[in-house]
Amino acid sequence: MTITTSLAAIAMTAAALCVVTGASSLATAQTAAAQGVDVAVASSDGIRSFNAEDIPTYVIAEDGTVDWPTFSGYRRYHAECHVCHGPDGQGSSYAPALKDSVMRLDYYEFLEIIAGGKQDVGAAQNLVMPAFGTNPNVMCYTDDIWTYLRARGTGDLDRGRPAKRADKPAEYAEVEKSCME
Amino acid sequence: MNHMKMGLVTSLLMSAAVPVLANESVLTATADSKQWAIQTGDYANTRYSELAQITKENVGDLQVAWTFSTGVLRGHEGSPLVVDGIMYVHTPYPNNVFALDLANDGKILWRYTPQQNPDVIGVMCCDTVNRGVAYADGMIFLHQADTTVVALDSKTGEVKWSVVNGDPAKGETNTATVMPVKDKLIVGISGGEFGVRGHITAYDIKTGEQAWRAYSTGPDAEMLFDPEKTMELGKPVGADSSLKSWEGDQWQIGGGTTWGWYSYDPDLNLIYYGTGNPSTWNPSQRPGDNKWSMTIMARDADTGVAKWVYQKTPHDEWDFDGVNENILVDQEIDGEMRKLLVNFDRNGFGYTLDRETGELLVAKKYDPAVNWATEVVMDPESDQYGRPQVVAEYSTEQNGEDTNSTGICPAALGSKDQQPAAFSPKTGLFYVPTNHVCMDYEPFRVSYAAGQPYVGATLSMYPAPDSHGGLGNFIAWDATKGEIKWSLPEAFSVWSGALATAGDVVFYGTLEGYLKAVDSETGEELYKFKTPSGVIGNVMTYEVEGKQYIGILSGIGGWAGIGLAAGLTNPNEGLGAVGGYSALSDYTELGGQLTVFAVPD
């Protein structure tokens, strides 16, 4: 990531940012800030990265290499979520585009909906999301799916499979194993 | 047999005679081309009609005669029925049924609006579709999303009986139609992506009482297999044929669901259907052939006992869910008339078998893009007899967990999904709606939890490379030789069931919403009309007051409607191609509607 914590942390309007910065490498910061989301890396625990509010976030290197948890999010999304929400978080007529939802939703709301499900049932349209609270294939990967969708939402990650990814950190593998058992 | 045939003749002669046995009522109704009494048109699943008022000469003049809104937005699969002057229209969840009086401008005679727990929507893979109702013995049979099977009086809509076939809390749901045979109703189950153990069940057609249930996996007794008499490719399957093909008790969550179409041969008294993919999609987690997933089953209609089986894709590695329809035709092969069963499998092979014995006669690719296997071995002396020869490069098992296998054709959608083909005895050809889509597939480890998705692979799909760029074809196929006669490129997967008629016209729908009519000999396009929404329903025909009509349900949805809504991208073509393919959402919107066509007087 090329965004610095200090820049992203400044509560600037998008317009102000546009005036202040012309560098293309800062396009992400503009987009993210305009949408009121903070995806800048403030810390890391060896498994994944976090923003200033300790919300999981993604790391995409200059050469496009995606951090392992975000890549894992791509995989898990396309196993568990895409049959309703469409490929690449793009949405479908069946369920909303999650790449956009995560730009609106609070991280904790996101977790709550995954665990508990959601229903919007009416005469013509029945939107029903099941509760995944007991599903380890989803619940062990909610942070991964979150950072993947955030990367899609800001536009930092294009559609399709990420071309390059970091290797799975040993710490990640350990936590994953205990979660899936 | 003789009794049944005589019964058929007698009731035909008496025209409106009240039938005694279910198969007589269905045989009578399906033998009358003016009606459309079961989803598949007839027991043989030919989707062929003798009606010939609409011909290849006049089909260009086709016009919309009348329309009907279903009031439901989701994907509309299946088709209406027409029996005794009444049209029966079904909807996706909430699975409403309307009876329309065709003698009175489609006035609604009755409606059935079941109350189901909406939780079931969340455990239905790939949309809340329903492939329609069936008629027999003065009743309309519906298998709801929540697996409630209900028998409705065809004149009043009154519930005669209902029974629950599965448990949505375990991921057991339904999307399929049912098949009335003799005094029984044959019913399947969906949920292969939730680790559901597949089965078919026969219920007493008068009471709903369970007569027998045959599982796709497990002990012989629960599968209704006779180790000595149930045959595969001319040999008895032997004891514990399923148990030996799984590790431990994985067969209990092993899939092999039965959500496709059913066919029946009254002379042989055999019912035919296919079983779905093994669960999970990660092949490394379930060593063995995973029998009897991915299998064509031939069972005795009275007892359910399997006479023969044939596993098309042992140890599936690609989700080539084997439930597609089995079309029963009599055709000449090598100068000899044979009782054939023709199946266009998701795996891209078109199979022709002897439906009496299960002998494999033809297995050829019906899309040249198919690359995951080189061939199906046809030499009975080979230890590979009947088995597809998997190409290592495209083997997600050999490449292993956490490896992305690229360029596999077809995609998990299959070269064809459930959308049924049609057969014309006049041309001897099959008309097949197909997908022309390839994929990358990466399996990984998953854990099973009851009622939760149990998938275990991520996949990305894209148009077949080095081809016309579209996602589908509509083809004519010679099943005696295994050859494509002609192929019409389509922008999107053809997800609509075809209809062939004695008027030498073949009809199908497209995802953009077109109803198309083509010449059954040449494939030349003769007519098209854009209906209000994308078509994933099946074309049907009927006649009222001396006039032939063509009916089709519109209502985009289903796996194709969801997966293609945003368009597909080809990761192998680099970033430049991203977004380069047209999105279905640029062409159509949700909305359930029936459109009925006729040629003006």
Alpha-carbon distance between the two ends of chain B:
43 Å
Rough outline of chain A: globular
Radius of gyration of chain B, taken over Cα atoms and rounded to an integer in Å: 22 Å
SSE arrangement of chain A, N to C: HHHEEEEHHHEEHHEH
- How many beta-strand runs of chain A? 7
**Largest sheet descriptor of chain B:** 5 strands, mixed
Please identify, by name, the CATH architecture of chain B. 8 Propeller
User: Structural class of chain A, please?
Assistant: mainly alpha
- CATH fold-level assignment of chain A: Cytochrome Bc1 Complex, Chain D, domain 2
Query: What amount of the residues of chain A lies in strands?
Result: 5-15%
- Secondary structure class of chain B reads mainly beta
Overall residue-averaged pLDDT value of chain A: 82
CATH superfamily of chain A: Cytochrome c-like domain
Uncertain stretches of 5 or more adjacent residues of chain B: 1-20, 571-581
Which ranges of chain A are low-confidence, i.e. pLDDT below 50, for 5 or more consecutive residues?
1-27
A few lines on this structure:
Chain A: Keywords: Signal. The complex is a heterodimer of chains A (181) and B (601). By secondary structure, chain A is mainly alpha-helical.
Q: How would you describe this protein?
A:
The complex is a heterodimer of chains A (181) and B (601). Chain A has 181 residues and is mostly helical. Chain A has one domain: Cytochrome Bc1 Complex, Chain D, domain 2. Helices cover 46% and strands 10% of the residues of chain A. Chain A has helices at residues 5-9, 14-20, 27-34, 68-85, 98-104, 107-116, 136-139, 142-154, 170-180; strands spanning 43-44, 49-50, 56-57, 65-66, 118-121, 126-129, 164-165. In chain A, strand 1 (43-44) and strand 2 form a beta hairpin. The longest helix of chain A is centred in the middle third of the chain and has 18 residues, at 68-85. The relative contact order of chain A is 0.17. Chain B has six helices and 40 strands. Chain B has one domain: Quinoprotein alcohol dehydrogenase-like superfamily (Methanol Dehydrogenase, Chain A, 8 Propeller), CATH 2.140.10. In chain B, strands 1-34-35-36-37 form a five-stranded mixed beta sheet, with no helix packed on it. In chain B, strands 2-40-39-38 form a four-stranded antiparallel beta sheet, with no helix packed on it. Chain B is mostly beta strands and 601 residues long. In chain B, strand 17 (263-265) and strand 18 (270-274) form a beta hairpin. Chain B is globular. The model of chain B is unreliable at 1-20 and 571-581 (pLDDT under 50). In chain B, helix 1 packs across helix 2. Helix content of chain B is 7%, strand content 35%. Classes of the chains: A mainly alpha (181), B mainly beta (601). At the A-B interface, helix 4, strand 6 and helix 7 of A face helix 3, strand 31 and helix 6 of B.
